[in-house]
Design a protein that fits this description.
The chain has one helix and seven strands. The protein is of the alpha+beta class.
Length: 122
Amino acid sequence: MAATRTHSFIPPMDFNKNYKTTKKLKSVLFILCFVAFAASAQETLYKSAYSGGYLVVPKSESWKIDRVFINDGAAYSIQVANSNFKKQYHSGDTIRAPYYIAEMELLSKNDLVQYQFYFKQK
């Protein structure tokens, strides 16, 4: 009795095609990593101003509001909605700390309220 083959035929692989696909995937992965690193490389900048005060963005800088808090000198701060401010400030722009906002009612003292700004510097 002759032996019969029961397995199917596996076609030869095109290694050149697989190499090109792998090279493309590596390139895409490198670009994604570079973009993610560049986005995280933005420096967080802290500035403070009293209510009614202002900040001026220095020449050749651009600031994007990350978050804003108010504080009356107590041990805690209250976050303020970013909608009270523009999203982006460029060199020479003036950032005015409002004299009064509704969140101040949650503080015990309303006379010396300090705004704590956190910006992403570009």
